[in-house]
Design goal:
Layout: E1 9-10, H1 20-31, H2 48-65, E2 71-77, H3 79-91, E3 97-102, H4 105-114, E4 119-125, E5 149-152, E6 154-155, E7 160-161, E8 172-175, E9 192-196, E10 206-212, H5 213-216, H6 229-234, H7 244-259, H8 262-282, E11 289-290, E12 301-305, H9 309-321, E13 324-325, E14 336-339, H10 346-363
Parallel strand pairs: 1-13, 3-4, 5-8, 8-9
Antiparallel strand pairs: 2-10, 6-7, 9-10, 11-12, 12-14
Helix pairs in contact: 1-7, 2-7, 3-4, 8-10
Bound molecules: pyridoxal-5'-phosphate (PLP).
Amino acid sequence: MTTSTDRILNFSAGPAIMPEPVLERIREDTWNIDDSGIGILEHSHRGPVVDRVFEETEQRVRTLAGLGDDHEVLFIQGGASMQFAMIPMNFLPADGVADYPDTGTWTTKAIKEAKLFGGVNVAFEGAASRYDHCPRADELSLSDDAAYLHYCSNNTIYGTRYMLPPQTTAPLVCDASSEMFSRPWPFADHAMVYAGAQKNLGPSGVALVIVRRDFLERTCRDAASMLDYRKHAKNGSRLNTPPVFGVYCIGLVLEWILESGGLPAMADRNQRKANRIYEAIDGSGGFYRGHATIPCRSTMNITFRLPTEDLEAAFLKEAADAGMSGLKGHRSVGGIRASIYNAFPAAGCDTLAAFMKDFARLKG
Ligand SMILES: Cc1ncc(COP(=O)(O)O)c(C=O)c1O
């Protein structure tokens, strides 16, 4: 049997760390859930246990996101990348245009998919500044009659985030994969918010999708059933055999967030955790160089470089020896990335910050 003492600090960008009480509960429910004598992996998706799991999970999403009846809550397979295609397939007419500020790899991929279905206005070209920030209002060039504006609220690879959603009169569509439910966000003002689960919500393979009912009515073409939001909504996310285990895990993670004080408490804790690492960067006399501009610093993914690649390799090796894994930056940015999602412990951020200070003192 494993215990928290034999687990190491997991800074992975995703799949990522899960709350330990949730892992303990999953272990029990995999054997026998709700005293049914059957584990969660073995229950029919049409039976009462899975009914309860889906209803409770949906209700927790509604509570955390502050949603009323005008939004649907869906669970769809295929991760966030499937959403890159489903969104334009459903909502971008062939002769229409959608605004897509490009803040890095994931929005670049979303743009590529959207171009298969209609016109795309790249409303901000982040590549020009190496994706070191999210656009200010005066950097956005919006089209007059956009079907929607798609943005990514937290850019996992670069460690940047929007402080507020972009301002537009077009329906807002947000990829919140790497920060879902890490801070209060005006979810109900969005036509759609989606998130692949494997960072802040649960295991990979399922996306949480929040979509406003009046936006669903703007569906512009008939898609194959599994790619049609209206059909998922009509069938309570059980159009076929759904990703039951993923939805069940999301439900437990959301219960843990609610019991931990909800989104304001998460945001406060996440900011304090991130500050410890940013202080180690800013206090290093230039030894560590943060990638994101200060106003756009993410609290979920913290990215920085060292003076040389050799020092970065030594940093990763010594960090691994000290029980810290998953710190290698994405290949497109290089350097170091510490992903410290909701479930990541504050003490782990202290450990990394202390390690960074020692490393800079010895090698700087
Ligand atoms: C912001 C963002 N969007 C989309 C994705 C793609 O997610 P998935 O692998 O679930 O398709 C990722 C994955 O890291 C991501 O960080």
